[in-house]
Design brief:
Chain A is an alpha/beta fold. In chain B, about 35% of the residues lie in helices and about 20% in strands. In chain B, helix 10 packs across helix 13. Classes of the chains: A alpha/beta, B alpha/beta.
Chain lengths: ~200, ~400
C-alpha cells in the first residue's frame, strides 16, 4: 500500500506531490470506532509527528447506529477535516461497509470483518479479516476487535509505527484493568498483519 | 494530561479535541470558576473542567440546568472570580435572559456555545451554525455583543484565551461560538500560553469605599464594578441605573447608560475585530465564512486557485461586532465583483455582509443545514455556477 500522490477531487493541496491519506474506521456505536480513530490519530500526530485531523460522525444513541471516524494524514496543511475519497476503510459491520465501500478509491484498501461482511461491493482491494472472531476466541471479548484491527493496520500497511501505537494504547489505558488486554490484542493484530503481509508477497 | 511531546521551545504538544483545547485555553487564561450542565456536543468541556478545576484551585459546579448555570457564573463573576460556562443551542436559549443581565450590570464572563443543529433539541450530534444571530440578538433590548469564533483546534485554544481577555477588558459577557465539527475534531494542539500568559485578574478600585461609584466610567468608557464582599457597597440591578448603581428613569441618564454600554464596545472595534485572510489581495471573488464552514471554504479556495480562478477567503475570528469597515475595504482593494457567504445554516451571516458591502457587489449565500458540514466540492460547484452563469 503506497500512499496516494494525488489528493481527492474536492481537496487539492497547492503543493503537488504532497502525500495525503484518507482513512475511515466505521462500525456500530459501542464497538470502539471513535476510540480507534482517536488512538490512530494520536499515534500518527504525536508519535510519528505527522499532520493529522480526526473528525467523527455518530448518531444520538449511545449504542448502535452508524458510526465513523475519519483520519486525514498529510505532510502539508489539512484544510478540510472530512474526506469523501478514501484510501483505507476499516469496517466492523456490514451496514458501514455497504455505505462507505463505494467511497474507497479504486487503488485503495478495504479491511472488512470476516464475520460481518460476506458480500463484496466496490472495486477496491478488499481483505476480509477475522477481527471479531479472534477477539472472541483469544480474549473472550468482542470489544478488543478494534485493537486487533489497529495492530493489523500498523504492520500490514505500515502507515503508522508500531511503537507509537503501543505507546498511545499504553498511555490511554494506563492504570486500568484493560491495559494488558488491549496491549495483548494490539500485539495479536501486529502478528496478523505480519502474517498477511508475507502472504501478499 | 494525556500523552504529549514538547516542541523545541518546550511547549507541550497534544492531540486534542476542540472542546479539550477550550478547557486548556480557559485554564491558561486564569479561569477559576465553572458552572454548567453537560449537553452534547459541549459535554467534553464540562467533563474537562470537572477534572481540571480542582487541580488549579478552581471551583466546578454541575448545576441543575442552564438558567442556574449562568446564574452561578454571574454570581461568581460578581464576587471576583474569572468565570465561564459551556453549552449548546438549547442551553444557550435558556441563558439568554441572564446574559442581558450580565451585560447590564457589566460583569465579565465567558460562555462557550458549541453549536448543534436546531431549533429545539434538533440534531444533538450533528453540526450547525444556526446560533450566529442568536449570539448577537438573543437577549431582549438593545445590546452589543462580543462573539468570537474558531476554525481549528489550535485556534479554539487561542480564541478562548482571547475571550477571557476581552471579557475582562470590556467587563461584559463574551460568547465563544464553536460548532460540533470543531468541538469534536482532534488535531495537534500546542499549549503556547502555558507559562507566558499573565492570567486574567480582577481589578480593585483604589479609592475609599465611601467615594466609590461602581458605574462611573473612566475615559475609555469601561467601568469595572468592584467585586462584591470587598467593602464596596453598591446596588447591582438589571434596571437602568446611574453611576451609583441605583435605578433611574431620567431620560438624559438613560441615554447616557445606553450609549455607554454600546460605545464601550463599538469605540474599541479595532481592538476586537479579528480575521484571517487567504488570497484576498487580488480576489475577484471573495468567500466570507467562520468555523467549520471556513475550513470547507479554505479547501474550495485552494481548488479554485489551482484552476486559476481568483478567489479569496475571509475567515472571521470575531463575528460580532461584525467587521463592517474592514470588509468593504478589502473588497474595494481587490476590486471584488461577487461575495459568497458560506455557512451551515439557512442564511444568517449573509445579512451583515450584505449590509456592509456597497450595492454594486453581489452577495450570494452558500448554505447547508442538514447537520453535515459544507463540502469543499459543493462550494467549488456553486461558486463556478455563479461565476459562469
Amino acid at each position: 500500500m503506497t500512499p496516494q500522490k494525488r489528493t481527492g477531487t474536492q481537496q487539492h493541496s497547492p503543493q503537488q506531490g504532497l502525500e495525503r491519506l484518507n482513512i475511515r474506521i466505521s462500525g456500530s456505536g459501542g464497538q470502539g470506532v471513535i476510540s480507534t480513530g482517536m488512538l490512530l490519530g494520536e499515534a500518527l500526530a504525536i508519535g510519528d509527528g505527522k499532520n493529522v485531523s480526526q473528525s467523527q460522525s455518530y448518531g444520538p444513541e449511545a449504542r448502535g447506529g452508524a458510526t465513523r471516524a475519519d483520519i486525514i494524514v498529510s505532510d502539508g496543511e489539512i484544510y478540510f477535516p472530512e474526506c469523501n475519497r478514501l484510501d483505507i476503510l476499516v469496517a466492523f459491520t456490514y451496514e458501514a461497509y455497504e455505505k462507505y465501500a463505494i467511497e474507497v478509491k479504486a487503488e485503495g484498501l478495504v479491511l472488512a470483518d470476516e464475520q460481518a461482511v460476506d458480500v463484496l461491493v466496490g472495486n477496491a482491494t478488499t481483505l476480509q479479516m477475522p477481527f471479531l472472531e479472534l477477539a472472541v476466541k483469544k480474549f473472550k471479548r468482542s470489544i478488543t476487535a478494534n485493537m486487533i484491527a489497529l495492530g493489523f493496520l500498523a504492520t500490514f500497511t505500515k502507515i503508522v509505527s508500531k511503537h507509537a501505537l503501543r505507546d498511545v494504547v499504553q498511555e490511554q489505558f494506563a492504570g486500568t484493568k484493560y491495559e494488558e488486554l488491549n496491549i495483548k490484542a494490539l500485539e495479536q493484530g501486529f502478528r496478523l498483519g505480519v502474517k498477511h503481509g508475507r502472504k501478499k508477497k | 494530561m494525556p500523552l504529549h511531546r514538547t516542541t523545541p521551545e518546550g511547549y507541550p504538544v497534544l492531540f486534542a479535541q476542540g472542546n479539550e483545547a477550550c478547557v486548556y485555553g480557559a485554564i491558561h487564561a486564569g479561569c477559576n470558576f465553572f458552572a454548567g450542565y453537560p449537553i452534547t456536543p459541549s459535554t467534553e468541556i464540562t467533563e474537562g473542567m470537572a477534572r481540571e478545576m480542582p487541580r488549579f484551585n478552581g471551583i466546578f459546579i454541575q448545576m441543575e440546568d442552564e438558567i442556574a448555570s449562568i446564574g452561578a457564573v454571574i454570581g461568581a463573576s460578581a464576587a471576583g472570580a474569572v468565570a465561564m460556562s459551556a453549552t449548546s443551542g438549547p442551553g444557550f436559549s435558556l441563558m439568554q435572559e441572564n446574559i442581558g443581565y450580565a451585560y447590564m450590570v457589566q460583569l465579565p464572563l465567558v460562555i462557550v456555545n458549541v453549536q448543534r443543529a436546531g431549533p429545539s433539541t434538533g440534531l444533538p450530534t450533528k453540526l450547525s451554525q444556526g446560533d450566529t444571530m442568536q449570539a448577537r440578538w438573543g437577549t431582549h433590548g438593545d445590546y452589543t455583543a462580543i462573539v468570537v469564533a474558531a476554525a481549528t483546534v489550535q485556534e479554539t485554544y487561542n480564541v478562548t484565551i482571547r475571550a477571557f481577555q476581552l471579557a475582562e477588558r470590556f467587563s461584559t459577557p463574551v460568547v465563544v461560538l464553536l460548532d460540533e465539527l470543531i468541538g469534536h475534531m482532534r488535531e495537534k494542539l500546542v499549549l503556547k500560553e502555558i507559562k507566558r500568559l499573565t492570567p486574567v485578574q480582577r481589578t480593585f478600585p483604589k479609592i475609599p469605599p465611601e467615594w466609590y461609584f461602581p458605574y462611573k466610567e473612566p475615559l475609555d468608557m469601561v467601568a469595572h464594578p468592584a467585586p462584591v464582599g470587598e467593602g464596596f457597597r453598591y446596588s447591582m440591578t438589571g434596571l437602568i441605573h446611574d453611576k451609583s448603581g441605583f435605578p433611574t428613569a431620567i431620560p438624559s441618564e438613560v441615554n447616557h447608560r445606553m450609549e455607554i454600554l454600546k460605545n464601550k464596545i463599538m469605540m474599541h472595534c479595532q481592538d476586537i475585530w479579528n480575521w484571517k485572510e487567504h488570497y484576498t489581495e487580488d480576489a475577484k471573488y471573495l468567500i466570507v465564512a467562520y468555523g467549520s464552514a471556513a475550513r470547507a471554504a479554505r479547501g474550495a479556495v485552494e481548488t479554485l486557485r489551482n484552476r486559476r480562478i481568483r478567489v479569496g477567503l475571509i475567515d472571521l475570528k470575531t463575528i460580532w461586532p461584525f467587521p463592517y469597515r474592514p470588509l468593504p475595504q478589502i473588497a474595494e482593494k481587490a476590486k471584488t465583483k461577487r461575495v459568497f457567504v458560506a455557512e451551515n445554516n439557512m442564511g444568517q451571516l449573509i445579512h451583515p455582509v450584505r449590509e456592509a458591502l456597497p450595492q454594486n457587489i453581489k452577495v450570494h449565500g452558500i448554505r447547508r443545514y442538514d447537520g453535515y458540514s459544507l463540502d469543499p466540492y459543493e462550494i467549488v460547484q456553486l461558486v463556478k455556477e455563479k461565476i459562469y452563469a
